Amino acid sequence: MGIGAAERCPCGSGESFGDCCRPYLLGKAEAPTAETLMRSRYTAYYQGNIDYLIATHHPTQRYGGQRAAIGQSVATTTWLGLRVVATEAGQAADSKGVVEFIAYYAGPRLGQVHERSRFVRQKQRWFYLDGDALPPVEPKRSDPCWCGSGQKYKACHGP
Prior knowledge:
This protein has about 160 residues and is an alpha+beta fold.
């Protein structure tokens, strides 16, 4: 999915794509923090940039068939938004970091990935190591719907 450099970045930072995730996805810069890497990986999923997703997955965690599995996920999923819930460490001087996030998607059905992800920094480069799946977070009735419709949750996808 092509994103213009001046368009808002899909990662939810509020910055333009050109000033946010684009340099990392093009290999022109390394993500300086674990959170930045996590946001750029979300944008890579949004775009279907499988090469970036594999390159930023720690080499010890890569597996045979990973490219095909990511390709199938990308083909059947539309990413709707990202919310960073919390970060622990993961700054430029750290060697480890944790980012909890919720990524909203549409596919065969609407859903979310709620994960507490672990990152490691080796040779000045951050990698996604692994993560723990967490239970889904149900929005409050008057919160904006996570599908991105602009409606309140109760009027859109609420119970």
